[in-house]
C-alpha cells in the first residue's frame, strides 16, 4: 500500500508521535513550550500527513530499539548487587572477626551459656537487613548506611 498523507490517523499513530516528541524533548531538541505546542497539535491531528509535519524538522527515532546487553538479566539472577562493595566487605569482615573472637572466648571459658549469640544474632540480623535493602535499591546507591549523596560543582556525580 502506498503512503497517502490524507489517510486518517489512528490513536496509535498519535501515541507513537507523542512518544517521539517526548524523546526529542528529553534529548533537548525541543524546549518545554515547543514540546507542549507540538503535543497539542499531535492529539488534534486528523491525518498522518499532519503528524508527519509535526516531526518533519526532527531526526527519526527508533522507539523499538532493544536495550543494551548489559541491561539484560540472566534467569535466576539475584536482586542484590553482583559484587560486594569495599564498604560491605569491610563490614562483614569486622562482623566475622568480632564473632570469631567471641566464640573463642566462649570456648575457652568452658562452653557455658552461649552468650556470644547475643552479639552475633542482632548484629547479623541488622547487617543482613541492610544488605538486602541495598540489593532491593532502598538505600543510597549501594552505600553502607544512608549517607547523603555527594555532588561535584555543576551537579556532576562523583561516581
Question: Nutshell version of this structure?
Answer:
This protein has 159 residues and is mainly α.
Task: Describe how the helices and strands are arranged.
Layout: H1 11-26, H2 32-44, H3 48-55, H4 86-108, H5 117-135
* Inertia-based shape: rod-shaped
| Elements, N to C (H/E) | HHHHH
Share in β-strands: under 5%
Query: Helical segment tally?
Result: 5
Mean pLDDT over all positions = 78
Would you mind describing this structure in some detail?
This protein has 159 residues and is mostly helical. Among the domains are: 11-55; 86-135. 50% of the residues lie in helices and 0% in strands. It is built from five helices and no strands. It has helices at residues 11-26, 32-44, 48-55, 86-108, 117-135. Helix 1 packs antiparallel against helix 2, helix 1 (11-26) runs parallel beside helix 3 and helix 4 runs antiparallel to helix 5 (117-135). The longest helix has 23 residues, at 86-108. The chain starts with 10 loop residues before the first helix and ends in a 24-residue tail after the last helix.
List keywords for this structure.
5 helices; rod-shaped; 159 residues; 50% helix; mainly alpha
Amino acid at each position: 500500500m502506498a503512503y497517502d498523507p490524507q489517510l486518517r490517523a489512528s490513536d496509535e499513530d498519535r501515541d507513537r508521535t507523542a512518544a517521539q516528541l517526548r524523546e526529542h524533548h528529553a534529548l533537548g531538541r525541543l524546549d518545554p513550550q515547543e514540546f507542549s505546542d507540538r503535543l497539542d497539535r499531535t492529539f488534534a491531528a486528523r491525518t498522518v500527513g499532519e503528524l508527519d509535519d509535526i516531526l518533519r524538522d526532527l531526526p527519526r527515532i527508533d522507539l523499538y530499539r532493544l536495550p543494551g546487553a548489559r541491561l539484560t538479566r540472566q534467569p535466576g539472577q539475584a536482586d542484590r548487587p553482583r559484587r560486594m562493595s569495599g564498604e560491605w566487605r569491610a563490614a562483614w569482615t569486622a562482623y566475622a572477626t568480632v564473632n570469631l573472637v567471641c566464640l573463642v572466648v566462649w570456648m575457652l571459658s568452658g562452653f557455658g551459656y552461649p552468650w556470644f549469640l547475643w552479639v552475633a544474632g542482632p548484629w547479623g540480623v541488622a547487617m543482613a537487613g541492610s544488605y538486602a535493602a541495598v540489593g532491593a535499591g532502598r538505600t543510597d546507591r549501594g552505600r553502607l548506611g544512608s549517607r547523603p549523596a555527594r555532588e561535584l560543582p555543576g551537579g556532576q556525580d562523583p561516581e
